[in-house]
Design a protein that fits this description.
The protein has 167 residues and is of the alpha/beta class. It has a single domain, classed as YbaK/aminoacyl-tRNA synthetase-associated domain (YbaK protein, Alpha-Beta Complex). It is 28% helix and 25% strand. It contains six helices and eight strands, in the order αβαββαβαβαββαβ. Strands 1, 2, 3, 4, 5, 6, 7 and 8 form an eight-stranded mixed sheet that branches.
Length: 167
């Protein structure tokens, strides 16, 4: 069974990782999230779950304003040519539905099956970042170091890359 949002939040609390949760109606796009977020402090993410021609799946976590072609993103991440992964792969590897893609989905992933690459600007330019907690009906505001540390504790190796290429 995939982890639940409540279980995820309990894990963060048990690890002493500082975070805040804001509940809201379901959002499926960056535009919808902008309209509902209110005054959430920090950088806001958009998350793309990609299938490279070879190698593990790639979860790219970008600043919401970042505009980059999917293949330019694949090249910038060293993954080569990529395409969007389908809903079945998303559920199998991250345990989430389309519209709820999040780096927290790695709580459900076998280490090594999904590579996660964060936009350097999202991590370095913001004291707080905002991501979904496995469902698109809430937003978790968390310090970048807390999120990266959480993923490392799960056995993943998050990468912080300059994903600006091709913008």
């Amino acid at each position: 069974m995939p982890e639940t949002p409540e279980g995820l939040l309990a894990r963060l609390a048990a690890m002493g990782i500082e975070h805040r949760v804001t509940h809201h109606p379901a959002v499926f796009t960056v535009a919808e999230s902008r309209a509902l977020r209110g005054q959430l402090e920090g950088g806001h993410s958009k998350n793309l779950f990609l299938r490279p021609k070879t190698g593990p799946f790639l979860l790219a976590v970008l600043e919401e304003r970042r505009q980059i072609s999917v293949n330019a993103l694949g090249r910038a991440a060293g993954a080569g040519r990529v395409s969007f992964a389908d809903a079945a792969a998303l559920m199998q590897h991250l345990g989430v539905e389309p519209g709820s893609v999040t780096p927290f989905g790695l709580v459900n992933a076998v280490p090594g099956a999904v590579r996660v690459a964060f936009d350097r600007h999202l991590i370095e330019d913001h004291a707080w970042i905002n991501v979904h907690p496995l469902a698109n009906t809430a937003t978790v505001t968390i310090r970048p170091a807390g999120l990266l540390g959480f993923l490392r504790a799960l056995g993943h190796a998050p990468e912080v890359l300059d994903l600006n290429a091709g913008t």
